[in-house]
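Example record

One chain of 184 residues, shown exactly as stored in the release files.
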Amino acid sequence: MEEEKKETAGKFADPLEIMKEIDVKRGDVMADFGCGAGYFSLPFAKLVGEEGKVYALDVLASSLESVESEAKVGGLSNVITKRVNLEAEKGSGLDGESVNWVVMKNILFQNKNKETIIGEAYRILKKGGKSLIVEWNDNNSSLGPDPKLRISEEELELMASKKGFSIEKKVKVGDFHYMLIAVK
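Predicted structure tokens for this chain:
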């Protein structure tokens, strides 16, 4: 497993810098779990091109409306929004082994059923597919969620391993986050 200390632009996890760390290809299919306003969905939609797809998944209708609007403004027809509950079994609503990548940025700390979400990522990934997981580091910073809610790298690695993933790479992103790339 590769471990890197990588400072990214600014103090927060920058999707453009993160994209340099991974091998997303044109035509890939991605699922962005807890997409929010599309911070990752939209740049990844450009990267996978018209041949690819990005499923922007969130529980909040307002987030999905924002992603749809931004995708339209950006001329991105390969972004598919879907309102989902990722804490439910098969919560993404996507077919098994249907995506190359699952992106999870800052969603696990705010959910009770973390292992269900990780298991759903594993279920929908094709064999050899990868999950990019970005979470708040446990540095007791006043920025971000309560430190008691944060997940340590070790804890996340254990959860991912229990669901069948192997960790390919660990990277420090920005001043407040870490990233794991987990392979099915």
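Notes: Confidence is low (pLDDT under 50) at residues 4-10.
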